[in-house]
Amino acid sequence: MTYISPNTELWASLFDLFFVMGASTAALVFGYMVYLVATRREGRRARDDKYAKTSTRRFLMVLVVICVVVGTTLYISLGVATDPYYIPPKNGPHLMIRVYAFRWGWNFTYPGGVSIINTLRVPVNTTIVLNITSVDVFHSLGIPMLDVKADAVPGFWNTLWFVVTVPGNYTDAIRCYELCGPGHAYMTANLDVMTSQSFSAWYAVATGGQ
């Protein structure tokens, strides 16, 4: 099944960028090495200053090209990996949920005081912002299908965000990625992505119509 999310698309584009730039750089470097081996063997090397100057110029040209490729890759990748990933988009509906990690489970607390253990219910096509902490030891909340993860640290709040565009109940979609004790392997939670109407109806009942 394909999970559609801006987060997964973001990191997929970053992977493609690294692959293209890395492959291009490797092809350039190894191609130049093959060229040197084929044209500058011991028996054919020139012994004059002209060869030395030409070789130096070519080496500098290759070095400049590599620096440009690597610099461009770093600039684009850092831009992709910082602001879009950590800062939620401003447009569209938002929902902020507090997450309290504990040995060995997850407490999801919604505005209005509604709390659920080990099931995260969210509306589809909504920017979900999770504020995450821990009540005991270090944990780490990760949702592999959405490519998001953040540490749960006692006395400290971490934030992540995601959007899911496909409704469904995803069993054990949320997992702990920090070794936290004998129950670590079972520290999972379900992700229930509901339609907007279904979520509103559930939330109204959960809050008593507040």
Structural shape: elongated
Average pLDDT number? 80
**Number of continuous helical runs:** 4
Give the strand order, joined by hyphens, for the main sheet.
3-2-1-5-8
Summary?
The chain is 39% helix and 29% strand. It is α+β, with helices and mostly antiparallel strands. The protein has a five-stranded mixed sheet, with no helix packed on it. Strands 4-10-9-6-7 form a five-stranded mixed sheet.
Please characterize this protein's 3D structure.
The model has no long low-confidence stretch (mean pLDDT 80). Helix 1 runs antiparallel to helix 2. The strands form two sheets. Strands 3-2-1-5-8 form a five-stranded mixed beta sheet, with no helix packed on it. The chain has a five-stranded mixed beta sheet with strand order 4-10-9-6-7. The protein has helices spanning 6-39, 49-81, 83-86, 196-206, and strands spanning 94-102, 105-109, 115-117, 119-123, 127-134, 139-143, 148-152, 158-162, 168-176, 188-194. The longest helix is centred in the N-terminal third of the chain and has 34 residues, at 6-39. By secondary structure, the protein is of the alpha+beta class. The radius of gyration is 26 Å and the shape is elongated.
List keywords for this structure.
210 residues, alpha+beta, five-stranded mixed sheet, 4 helices, 29% strand, elongated
